[in-house]
Amino acid sequence: MPTLAIERNLKTLAQLHTEFKLQPAEAEDFFEEWLTMLPSLSDAERSGLDQIRAQFRYQFSEGRLGEETIKLIVLSPLLQLAGFYNPPFQFRAEDTIYLEIEADERRYRGRIDALILQERFWVLAIESKETGFSLGLAIPQLLAYLLASPNGDRPVYGMVTNGESFVFAKVQGGAMPQYELSDVFSLLPRRNRLYDVLQILKQMGEIVLMVD
Description:
Layout: E1 3-5, H1 6-9, H2 13-20, E2 23-24, H3 43-60, H4 67-81, E3 89-101, E4 106-118, E5 121-128, H5 135-147, E6 155-161, E7 165-172, E8 178-181, E9 185-186, H6 194-211
Parallel strand pairs: 1-4, 2-8, 5-6
Antiparallel strand pairs: 3-4, 4-5, 6-7, 7-8, 7-9
Helix pairs in contact: 3-4
């Protein structure tokens, strides 16, 4: 069975729709988790988020930032504030996943930049890009990773970021998997949208713990 790289061979939503029967969700309440009942933030958390944004803006003022820089100055401190480095969560970097199409005897392989787990269940899969990379082009890659989740019929969540902007995704598995995306949260406006990002990250962690 030939193995193909997800990043190079699954670049469009149309491919995911055709090969994996993935479809946009029709129900308006399919992905309400990023909208409702979000946890509140402490003053210390808001201060930490303000510092992350200030550091990003300072570094970004000199030009494009690479993927590894984004992971260090934005993603890592965000995950720290979300509590994803503490029990009961486990953190994995560059985790290899596989997607198989048995009828065509074809397999895809990818490496998730960051994966948060709670025991055997995926909490959040994260794809990080450099600042010049379009999030729209990264979304098919993220959705392909989410389709590889071992959560069965339970929903799985993802986030893609280029440091400057953030988008969340939800995939519900099954014979006809569905997906939906959140709004785009940008660090460029005056209001610090990292507040929203952290609230959503914490919400996703709480959802998995409640279901478990």
